[in-house]
Amino acid sequence: MKNEYDENICCEVEKQTEKSYHSMAPEIVQTSSFSFPTYEEFIAVSADEKNNYVYTRGTNPTTEILEKKIARLERGAKCKVFSSGMGAISATMFTLLSQGDHVLMVNTIYGESLSFIQYMEKFGVTLTKIDVSTTAEIEAHIQSNTKVIYFESPSSQKFELLDLEKITAMAQKQNIRTVIDNTWASPLFQHPLDYGVDIVIHSCSKYIGGHSDIVAGAVIGEEKLVDEIFENGHQSLGAVNSPFNSWLAIRGLRTLPVRMAHQTHAIQTVLDHLKEDPRISKIHHPYLAVGEQKELADKYLSGYGSLFAIDLEDTDFTRLKAFVNALEIVTIGVSWGGFESLALPVVKGNNLDAVKKRGLSPAHIRMYVGLEEPMSIVEDIQQALDQVYGK
Ligand SMILES: *Cc1c(COP(=O)(O)O)cnc(C)c1O
């Protein structure tokens, strides 16, 4: 049979080569689907789509390399990667929760995660959001229908820690699942699965990607649970990571240890120089924690992430804007975990009530130390403070 039509040349499926290139970097298997030499093989393989390549909405060889690496870093049995952190979070909660279930959202968690659970109220899921950090206070809010305790530690904006071991012991006794968003610490500086947490989530858009060029997410846990999230939350909600973005995340992981070693040193340098500044009323970061919070930091963190927040002494919005605009090295922008230092005030001029409801000061500014020389960031913040608030 001749097959020399241009259309057919364009459409002909490549024969798989037996040759391997032994490339240092993995291949980007940028394909939507996979071909089968016989129908019998298709039937055999498609009976187990989780462990075979059929369609990239399910599995893909490049993405699988990333999943195996993140699972090992988090010391979990299995990882599933998603096209965003929110894709990972929504797929997890969609899978774990049913009508009539209750969720405890602990601490100042990432705003969009809270919005998502609030949205699930229309499906009959209820939630309690509690701004506490002791295990006894958390336990006091458990209901007979509580199915999930969802938290960050350190938390967004306030960077307060929870006692993971105590929370999981308490939750396990009552058959409640625990889910932690571990993005702040990266997979290197905190290993929640070691303390009995059921599910660890990362936004790979932050430290794992590391270069401010991808949006991706990951879920890690025991095989059965991650498979369930794969079959329901991933397959049907469809937040699938592209093979190219998986490849970029793999490339990000190559330098994660050196970047995190820099970050833990850089953040301490910056905070050592800002902590006595009278123009800053409070710095939120575990490095400066005292008492019980310090003990938790020492127990659970083997290094420090470089995301933190400051509350300015002066809460005037016009001067706060002038301060942020006066920064020269530090850039204004959302997200974090890349190479560039960032500042982002929580007040936007029209959301003061929401900010107060979250328990934050109107002069609260989230900041991120990037990979620039740390003292230059200190000097940049100081010159902006000098300009607006005087020396
Ligand atoms: C950014 C972020 C998310 C959301 O991740 P995306 O990849 O942006 O969807 C969730 N949790 C934390 C702590 C984050 O910083």
TrEMBL record:
Its GO CC terms are: cytoplasm
What's this protein's family per the entry? Belongs to the trans-sulfuration enzymes family.
- Indicate yes or no for the key word NADP: no
Keywords tagged on the record: Pyridoxal phosphate
Query: What organism, scientifically named, is this protein from?
Result: Enterococcus termitis
Q: Which domain of life is it from?
A: Bacteria
**What's the protein called, per UniProt?**
homocysteine desulfhydrase
Catalytic reaction annotation:
L-methionine + H2O = methanethiol + 2-oxobutanoate + NH4(+); L-homocysteine + H2O = 2-oxobutanoate + hydrogen sulfide + NH4(+) + H(+)
Example of a GO biological process term: transsulfuration
